[in-house]
Amino acid sequence: MTPPRAALAFVLIVMLLPAFRDAWGQLPEPRAREQPAPLAAAFRHFDAGRWEEAAEAFEAASREGAVVLPPGALKSWGVAASEASRPLAAYVRLRQYLAREPQAADREALEERVARAREALAAGAARFSRVLATAERRPDEESGGERHVVRVAARDGEVSVEGLSGLRVEAPLWRRAEEIPLAPYLDLVRRLLDAPAVIDDVPAQRFDPNAAGPRRGVVLRVVIGDEERRLEALRGEPYDRLKGAMDVVLEFAHKVPALPDPEPVEPPKPGKRRR
User: What is the pTM of this model?
Assistant: First the structure.
């Protein structure tokens, strides 16, 4: 009499169980997910106290599209940048870390680093810095386009502002190029450093020719010494937030007073000749 199929299958499974168990025992244990190579290298440099190399490696890891830096990486990046005399990177990354970890055990010490970096940036901005902002909207069927460009530059305490706005750069409705005082410019730099739109990273956005709505873009660059913070956005909340920072720069360029023109120096009058 032939046994039922279900009973036969059960017998076969029981007979094969030892073989399956032996084979399963030979499989490797699942390993924890390894860190990406650039990030692992950054932590190795950090642990060895190689601050310059660590800061560069964290920068490289942040450029990897698939890598989202964990809070610990932001903290180590900020500390390494602080030790390597990179105040802009230290300020931005430690601010990002503290925003993500509000209950950090060493918050007070890190906030002291942030404060020192901010002071160093203000001093460095007076020596050599740039703030460059551009916002553009292409014309569409409903309205014309517009473009705003502002450039503020400082070197050794002297500051100049250049700006223009209009439908075309070639024929702007507003233009300015003047020397301005240092103090208002440093206030602008501090205001930008405190703005979340400048602290937060902006996700990369590719231009989509098929997207609905006006084609627009905004770019903001803050250069202090040898460091640069560049942010750009095309749409959505990142655009709205960065456009708000651009508007701050544009308003500054419109309203900051110019330095008075230097008074002309009269040449000395020739004296009378003695006989």
Answer: 0.78
